[in-house]
Amino acid sequence: MKTLSGKLALVTGSSRGLGKDMAIRLTEKGADIIVTYHSNESAAQDTIAKIESLGQKAIALQLDTGKIDSFNSFFENLKTEIESKWGKTELDILVNNAGIIPQSPIAQMDEATFDLVTTIQYKGVFFFTQKALQLLPEGGRIINISTGLTRFSIPGHAAYAAAKSAVETFTKYLARELGGQKITVNVVAPGAINTDINRDAFAQNQQLSGFISQMTALGRIGEAEDIGGVVSFLASEDAAWITGQRIEVSGGMFL
């Protein structure tokens, strides 16, 4: 059932990996999609081709969520593109997914990497969402992507997980402040996922893959397809009474 028919969703970082699957699952429910990509326009066009094959419309826009000073021009361009493509002035669904996952022990973390991950994973989400609020109508949806690493600890991810913890707190405040407009705001927190970012690491380290599978109640590493359906559910009317919540989608890691 196309429960999101007529809705327009923006999914940051949706040219590949988790973001691509989120975009496709939203498409399957009837939403049109604004795909954003950092540098790989070809991958973004592949995502658009898939969306169009499912009978929906899409466009691709370049976005670097680490460059806060580019957001004004991005949204001016976005408003023009929305009106041109859809004859609309509003954006119904925002999914803040784009990010990086640098790994470093605390003792070896350098300030430049720390600043980069904090800017992209938290500051960028904060101010990108702030700009997007001007386009979100009453009853809109905001879905932020976090990580299971805010609940359990794996060495090497301190800066990343701390920034995602900030996003989770930000989500609760957003939900409270936007509740009067019936805009819901929730967090989806994936566990270990076999995406293109870390697929080689899992393939080359069977011990790691086995350990994660053993420590996961459902007995395997997650796939991108495990996440998108939860995002599309939260974007639907079926989830209209859910806001300010963190939903971990990890197959039961480290229970």
Report what the structure shows.
It is a single chain. The chain is of the alpha/beta class. It has helices at 17-28, 41-53, 71-86, 111-132, 158-178, 199-204, 206-214, 225-234, and strands at residues 8-11, 32-37, 58-62, 93-96, 141-145, 184-190, 246-249. The protein has a seven-stranded parallel beta sheet with strand order 3-2-1-4-5-6-7, with helices on both faces. The radius of gyration is 18 Å and the shape is globular. The two termini are 34 Å apart.
Topology:
Elements: E1 8-11, H1 17-28, E2 32-37, H2 41-53, E3 58-62, H3 71-86, E4 93-96, H4 111-132, E5 141-145, H5 158-178, E6 184-190, H6 199-204, H7 206-214, H8 225-234, E7 246-249
Helix pairs in contact: 1-8, 4-5
Radius of gyration: 18 Å
Mean pLDDT: 95
Q: Please state how the strands of the largest beta sheet are arranged side by side.
A: 3-2-1-4-5-6-7
Q: Number of DSSP helices?
A: 8
Shape: globular
Cα-to-Cα separation, first versus last residue:
34 Å
Strand fraction band? 5-15%
Short structural description:
The protein has 255 residues and is of the alpha/beta class.
List descriptors.
single chain; 255 residues; alpha/beta; seven-stranded parallel sheet
